[in-house]
Amino acid sequence: MEPIFITSNKNKLGEARAILGFSIKHRSIDIEEMQSIYASEVARGKAKAAYEKLHTPVIVEDTGLHIEGLGGFPGALVKWMIEGLGYENMCRVVDLCKSRDAYAETCVAYYDGKKMRVFEGKINGSISKTPLGSNNFGWDCIFIPDGFAKTFAQMRPSEKNSVSMRREAFAKLGRFMASHR
Q1: According to the model, what pLDDT value does residue 177 have?
Q2: Separation of alpha carbons 129 and 139, rounded Å
């Protein structure tokens, strides 16, 4: 059975399809999401919950932004931190830290009801002093990957997809799917 990618986020779906290089079935369903700073824990929980609703193999994704100066916080809770603070204030909070270093991680979980597989991607970088860029998806406007002088939001989508943590995780999933056809 072909797995279904569970997401209501069209940006995640678009990036996944671009990275995988093939269309993947998707569906938006309401599932309760556990709260953790660890994207792998959130992805595992979402995969189990989605499988329980659909009884078919599923793929879910979760992403986190870990800021060194905040002890790794907010991780997978970044959406809620940005919702509460906004991008400008998030940058100001990091101004108070000794380091702007951060890493972004994506965890893609595949679950068929018996076996759970988690594929991780990670990229190091830093938090910008102010939000920059217009190709904004999530916190792209405040994350500068190592080796670049611009945020993800300042990159063309193809440029971002060639270096992102999501690319790494979905590429691993793609190799897994190809070997299990």
Answers
A1: 86
A2: 13
